[in-house]
Design brief:
Strand content of chain A: 25-35%
Helix content of chain A: 10-25%
CATH topology of the largest domain in chain B: MetI-like fold
Oligomer: heterodimer
Structural class of chain A: alpha+beta
Number of helices of chain B: 15
Shape of chain B: globular
CATH architecture of the largest domain in chain A: 3-Layer(aba) Sandwich
Order of helices and strands of chain A: EEEHEEEHHHEHEHEEHHEEEEEEEEE
Radius of gyration of chain A: 24 Å
CATH superfamily of the largest domain in chain B: MetI-like
CATH class of the largest domain in chain A: Alpha Beta
Helix content of chain B: over 70%
CATH topology of the largest domain in chain A: Rossmann fold
Largest sheet of chain B: none
Shape of chain A: elongated
CATH superfamily of the largest domain in chain A: P-loop containing nucleotide triphosphate hydrolases
Largest interface: A-B, 26 and 20 residues
Distance between the termini of chain A: 53 Å
Strand order of the largest sheet of chain A: 6-7-8-3-9-10
Number of domains of chain B: 2
Number of strands of chain A: 19
Distance between the termini of chain B: 25 Å
């Protein structure tokens, strides 16, 4: 177990800056997720931590030790790749044994440790197979077993679930988290999938254009976004934005409900919602429409759970409302979060 | 090759059908495009091969009109001829030594060429050059390099005082040196192909695998021998197969450099067959020598291709 830290780390490629000064520190045994759209630099950052990519400037520390000059093998890390990168010419057993052999572990203990790792991931019966004979889920388990077998200080996972089909992914997510909790190994997990990030992470670092936009617990990042990028990237559908004088105001689709459906005594902001189209998703309804009156027909989405039995028809305007405390404000030029601004339409 | 072996339905006679162009009919198009290659192989390889088979079991020779079957007599008499045994041994030695060197050097060169560096295109071009140069011209170049009086090697080494005043090797005249010289030229000639093939093999290995190995604790040598080489092995076997066949069947290098000398020390089967059959006029004896290795070469080709296929991964 160890803390991983990057200090103003930068990576310049020939024609672009992939990582632009990232200061990030994990906590002991933490599950930290790097979340961002493709090309945001998250994988490059992970590869620099692993030592597979040399940073242009800045430092990487693992367990308090400067590892800038250390090759990957000396950093006591394990990495799982998106492609799993299983050695195709070796059996599963040899794949798992490879890191042990490479690090000169006493040969007599290797079969035992391979066995234990295989048992942990339920792949004992696959030990004699070659990777090409395995299904996607099995390959993923082998990759994890190979990563954990040498008991690394840090786990680095690069989108390890993105090659699985949707059903398997949910299952694998659950297993992965249980496994990480049991091992208690500091883990850095790269993904572009916000559901994975929200579900797995102790904390999430949201990245865009080579910078960390926000670092925080999933709920913080979701409910208290630091800027419009984070607000718009997290959530499906994303946060609704509209102009409010010199600021940008935003609220989540699931907080935008028919006025009658709001309970409690929170102050409400009423907005007339012209519904254009309805998508029925089974568990919920998505209402696509626009804000009327003073809001220049801004397009917004409302997300209603199916338990909310309100009749809504397209082409009609309804009185919807948001709790005033759920509306976030952002600076129009920088996109950064600013303090709340009282609404005139309070009821 | 599938198009040529598939059973085709006969051409329909309807006018609509007849109007379809040749290019629309894949079965016939395939045959038409294969035809030049097949004609070429049949005319220039197949016919001479059958002719050689026939010659090897007769007593045919230049200037004699009477042809009589002697069956295996040509082969048995060849086996009793010390020059033939020498040539047989040399054929193997040349192939083994040159291929060993080629495989090692090709791996090193291909590793070096994988990385980007300024002037890479030039290095690539230079490495490929021996392959595009005609063998005979290349060999003549080497003949001058190994020349007993003007050898550029000797003069250079003397000029930088590696050779003392009494050292003056005759590269093509001393048996061991002649052997080494021939191996050198073979390596020079076969290296480009092997390098290009190996390079192709290297670049087909996903970067992730090498990264994974680095993270897993493997240093350069372990990555090389446990990941890279096993993965390019099937492709390298193809290069090896080509190399072995070239080395076994080539006679131009020998013909130009040593003509089999000194004292038949560099004679190989191909050159001996030529000297016996064409220059010596003993067509039957030459054919027997030329065909001697055919079963062995065919078997090793099949074996190597099998191994290559079995080792194929991913």
């Amino acid at each position: 177990m160890a803390i991983v830290e990057t200090r103003s780390i930068r990576k310049k490629f020939a024609d672009s800056i992939a990582v632009d000064g990232v200061d990030l520190a994990t906590r002991e045994g933490e599950f930290l997720v790097l979340l961002g759209p493709s090309g945001c630099g998250k994988t490059t950052l992970l590869r620099m931590i692993a030592g597979l990519e040399r940073q242009s400037s800045g430092d990487v520390l693992i367990g308090g030790k400067l590892v800038n000059e250390l090759p990957p093998r000396a950093r006591k890390i394990a990495m799982v790749f998106q492609s799993y990168a299983l050695y195709p010419h070796m059996t599963v057993a040899k794949n798992i044994a490879f890191p042990l052999k490479a690090q000169g572990v006493d040969a007599s203990t290797i079969p035992d440790r391979v066995q234990r790792a295989a048992t942990m991931f339920g792949i004992q019966r696959l030990l004699d197979r070659k990777p090409r004979q395995l299904s996607g889920g099995e390959r993923q388990r082998v990759a994890l077993a190979r990563a954990m077998v040498r008991e690394p200080d840090v786990f680095l996972l690069d989108e390890p679930l993105s090659n699985l089909d949707a059903k398997l992914r949910t299952l694998a997510r659950d297993e992965l988290q249980q496994f990480q909790r049991r091992m208690g190994t500091t883990t850095i997990y790269v993904t572009h999938d916000q559901v994975e990030a929200m579900g797995l992470g102790d904390r999430i670092a949201v990245m865009n254009q080579g910078r960390v936009r926000q670092l925080g617990r999933p709920q913080e990042v979701y409910h208290e976004p630091a800027d419009t990028f984070v607000a718009g990237f997290l959530g499906s559908p994303p946060m609704n934005f509209f102009q409010r004088e010199d600021l940008i105001a935003g609220f989540r689709p699931e907080q935008f409900l028919p006025k009658s459906a709001h309970e409690g005594n929170d102050a409400l902001v009423t907005l007339w919602f012209q519904v254009h189209r309805i998508e029925n998703l089974g568990a919920s309804r998505l209402l696509y429409g626009s804000l009327r009156d003073a809001f220049q027909e801004e397009k917004v989405i409302a997300h209603l759970p199916f338990t909310m039995h309100v009749h809504i028809a397209p082409g009609t305007a309804y009185e919807f409302a948001v709790k005033e405390k759920d509306i976030k404000f952002f600076d129009r030029s920088t996109g950064l979060r600013t303090g709340p601004k009282p609404f005139w339409d309070r009821q | 090759m599938r198009a040529s072996t598939d059973v085709q339905t006969p051409h329909a006679e309807s006018p609509v059908r007849r109007r379809t162009r040749l290019a629309d009919n894949e079965a016939w198009l395939g045959r038409a495009m294969l035809a030049p290659a097949i004609i070429y192989i049949v005319a220039l390889v197949g016919v001479p091969f059958l002719l050689a088979l026939f010659y090897s079991v007769t007593n045919i020779s230049v200037g004699h009109t009477e042809v009589r079957f002697v069956w295996l007599e040509n082969f048995t008499s060849a086996l009793q001829n010390p020059t033939f045994l020498r040539a047989l041994k040399n054929s193997f030695l040349f192939a083994v030594f040159s291929q060993l060197l080629v495989i090692v050097l090709a791996t090193i060169l291909a590793s070096a060429l994988q990385k980007d560096f300024p002037g890479k295109w030039l290095v690539r071009l230079l490495i490929l050059l021996p392959w595009v140069a005609p063998i005979s011209l290349g060999s003549i170049g080497w003949l001058w390099i190994f020349e007993p009086i003007y050898s550029v090697i000797n003069w250079t080494l003397r000029a930088i005082h590696v050779f003392g005043p009494n050292t003056w090797p005759i590269w093509l005249g001393q048996p061991n040196l002649a052997f080494a010289s021939v191996v050198t030229v073979h390596v020079w000639r076969l290296l480009p192909l092997a390098t290009v093939i190996t390079l192709g093999g290297f670049s087909s290995i996903p970067q992730d695998l090498l990264d994974a190995a680095s993270v897993d604790g493997a240093g350069f040598w372990r990555r090389q021998f446990q990941i890279t080489l096993p993965l390019v092995l099937p492709i390298m076997l193809v290069a090896l197969l080509f190399g072995v066949i070239f080395a076994f069947t080539d006679m131009i290098v020998i013909y130009v450099l040593t003509r089999g000398g000194p004292y038949d020390m560099t004679q190989v089967l191909a050159s001996l067959a030529f000297f016996t059959g064409i220059e010596g006029g003993d067509l039957a004896g030459g054919a027997a020598i030329a065909l001697f290795l055919f079963p062995l070469l065919a078997a090793s080709a099949i074996f190597l291709l099998r191994v290559a296929r079995r080792a194929e991964v991913i």
